[in-house]
Amino acid sequence: MKKFTASLLVLILTALLVMPAVMGASPAPAPVVGEIQSSVSFRSAPSTSSTVYKYLKAGDNVVILEKTNASWYKVQDVFGTVAYVSSSDKYIEIIYNASIVSSVSFRKSASTEGTRLRYLSKGESVLITGQPNSAWYAVTDSHGVKGYVSSSEQYISIGASFSLPSGTKPGSGSGGGTTPNAPQLIENAIAAGMKYWGTPYEFGSDRDNTKTFDCSDFVRTAFREGANLTLPADSRKQGDYVKAKGATKSDWRSLKRGDLMFFMEYKGSKASNYAGVNKATETITHVGIYLGNGQILHTYSTASGGVRTNDIAGGQWENRFLFGGSVL
Question: pTM higher than 0.70, yes or no?
Answer without folding.
Answer: no
